[in-house]
Q: What sequence folds into this?
């Protein structure tokens, strides 16, 4: 077989298509199994023998092969949620007495895991300003085990200087982990930038249909991969084959969908920027964003998820505005074909010293695959109703 094609879209169409996985079809067989039969008594305890469904089936193997095209690193584990993909590196690598550094803009449930579980587990958790860059070095102690990043933050959209932080981690022997869900592994390749482990929620763009939950972990480091796999196995984590099948199906069309999310996201964001009711957009793809240059340096494109601060005096009308929208669903997820919006202020939690970039009540838009002009018309009518009250 010749070298792999250069382009991700081609590789994702052709990954995991071996006869052994597909039995002649285009898609992998959907293999449901708890019991696995082995050929002989000796095989029951053979090293690396596949002996039980919790360790995956043909369908999971296909999904991992497909995902391995995404981040220029093997997918070492698939788990049943993105949150589990975020928390597994902590349980795999950190021990009681360790110190972990966590970006102040991480996904709320990741933060809750750190504040509750990890502290009870005996780890010291310290949050740092996402703009810290190479300055992270001053926070590293003898017992610092792991640094967890999310870039951009999925509510406030700060871009971290990922290569600078990863370089410090390598030099000082600290494991670096990033939540790469926003870029879906298409726009940012953290492992190429020196990060040890990249994790994603596949519930978002990868699945793309708002109908499955899943997470994936990627690393090129065999030692770390083995620890992650051991932790997943020790904890009894597994994904249903049906979900694995759906996630792989979403993966095939990911690059195409992201192009549309990206172009529509930019169009809607630019339109919002022209509105008097809007104080500020939080979207690194916009030239006006303070993180634009950093984003442009490291990312190949932008997802369709961004923040939007309304004018501070509209704080009392935020919920009314959302309720006037007809095409935007009110929902916490993102990355599906349908547009969503939430207001974020009740869940914002920041404890690290540093500037906040908010200038009014914060909304978060996930721009779906609808025609962007229809979305703009919907926003337009909702703003109109606001000002007429
Ligand atoms: C949704 C999300 C997660 C968690 O993913 P689930 O699959 O819902 O558990 C993790 N990180 C980010 C940035 C997310 O948006």
A:
């Amino acid at each position: 077989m010749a070298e792999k094609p250069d382009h991700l879209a081609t590789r994702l169409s052709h990954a995991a298509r071996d006869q052994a996985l597909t039995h002649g079809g285009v898609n992998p067989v959907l293999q449901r199994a708890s019991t696995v039969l082995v050929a002989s008594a000796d095989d029951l305890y053979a090293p690396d023998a596949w002996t039980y469904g919790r360790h995956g089936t043909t369908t999971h193997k296909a999904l991992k092969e497909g995902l391995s095209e995404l981040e220029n690193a093997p997918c070492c584990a698939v788990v049943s949620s993105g949150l589990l993909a975020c928390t597994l590196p902590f349980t795999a690598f950190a021990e009681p007495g360790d110190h972990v550094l966590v970006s102040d803009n991480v996904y709320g449930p990741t933060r809750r895991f750190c504040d509750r579980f990890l502290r009870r587990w005996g780890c010291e958790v310290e949050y740092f300003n996402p703009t810290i860059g190479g300055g992270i070095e001053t926070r590293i102690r003898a017992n610092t085990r792991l640094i967890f990043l999310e870039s951009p933050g999925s509510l406030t959209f700060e871009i971290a200087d990922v290569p600078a932080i990863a370089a410090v981690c390598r030099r000082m022997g600290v494991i670096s982990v990033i939540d790469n869900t926003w870029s879906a592994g298409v726009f940012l390749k953290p492992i190429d930038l020196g990060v040890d482990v990249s994790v994603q929620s596949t519930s978002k763009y990868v699945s793309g249909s708002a109908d499955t939950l899943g997470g994936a972990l990627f690393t090129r480091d065999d030692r770390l991969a083995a620890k992650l796999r051991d932790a997943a196995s020790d904890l009894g984590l597994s994904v249903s084959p049906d979900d694995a099948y759906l996630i792989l199906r979403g993966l095939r069309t990911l690059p195409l969908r992201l192009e549309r999310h990206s172009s529509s996201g930019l169009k809607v964001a630019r339109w919002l920027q022209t509105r008097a009711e809007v104080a500020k957009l939080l979207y690194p793809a916009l030239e006006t964003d303070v993180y634009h240059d950093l984003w442009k340096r490291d990312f190949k494109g932008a997802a369709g998820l961004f923040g939007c601060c309304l004018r501070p005096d509209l704080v009392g009308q935020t919920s009314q505005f959302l309720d006037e929208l007809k095409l935007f669903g009110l929902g916490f997820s993102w990355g599906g074909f349908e547009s969503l919006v939430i207001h974020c202020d009740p869940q914002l939690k920041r404890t690290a010293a540093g500037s906040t970039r908010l200038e009014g009540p914060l909304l978060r838009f996930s721009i779906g695959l609808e025609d962007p002009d229809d979305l703009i018309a919907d926003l337009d009518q909702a703003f109109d109703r606001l000002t007429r009250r």
In short: The pocket of pyridoxal-5'-phosphate is lined by residues 81-83, 86, 107, 150, 154, 179, 181, 201, 203-204, 213, 215 (CB under 6 Å).
